[in-house]
């Protein structure tokens, strides 16, 4: 039986961590738009004093603002999907889409740690019945651990393995450390989430990989 | 004399726009998009104030602040952050930051803080020079 007092607080921590990071990203975008709006004001004041303002200069500023608006739009879309992942305890999930969403949410954590996250989704993944929010939580726990265990090239490779009756998410290219340094399988939060999701966590210390398998109908 | 400023933020679009606005306000501005680059610039040049982003890849603002202060305790550092928590603010002040401003920052407020930083640095430099002269007078026994 999975323990709510384990996954509940962990889920809230995860939600809080992602929300704080997203708000930080939004603030960065606003800061850039703010400075460029200020720059436009400065140029208007200069023009009023008779200083010539090159049209190309204005085109450049408009381009920067446009780029940041598109960035903010993407952040808002990801935030919206993330927030709605908690709408239902059970639902049909495309694992590849969920991994991509998780990567978009944790991008800043990775860049702050100097880690590159790589993911090439398979051409098609069968849908799985899962708890969408808690699946994202499990993907994050794996990413957090994988970033700590990343090898010398500071890259974590994510792969989806499709097999009959199961779908696996693999965190690859990690440091092949001793058994004591790895705890994906025995970590309390991972175990509770795995029980809730019917997932099977595994790790292969020697080859520097860990992951989890999800049951699927095909 | 123009204040000599180093702006440090991993968001290139932010640094470039803010630098241009500060230059338009008569400041002498250099930029860096990473803490290691900023540290390298302070090895070569002296700045009246450093405006430093708190959250950056490679080395975060607090670690960079610590290194700046170790290298030169007189350096005046103003931190900019997208998420100012009380905990981080206290940590920054303990490490010797002059101030911590939240993004998006008002340019006039930031300019005022930079002028304060510049004046404060001048006081510290003058005080250090006076102490040095005093030491020489005492030790040389003229």
UniProtKB/TrEMBL annotation, chain B:
GO terms for cellular component: cytosol; protein-DNA complex. Keywords: DNA-binding, Phosphoprotein, Two-component regulatory system. One of its GO terms (molecular function) is phosphorelay response regulator activity. This is Response regulator. PANTHER family: PHOSPHATE REGULON TRANSCRIPTIONAL REGULATORY PROTEIN PHOB, REGULATOR OF RPOS. It comes from the Bacteria. Residues 4-118 form the Response regulatory domain. Pfam families: Response_reg. One of its GO terms (biological process) is regulation of DNA-templated transcription. The modification 4-aspartylphosphate is found at residue 53. The keyword DNA-binding applies.
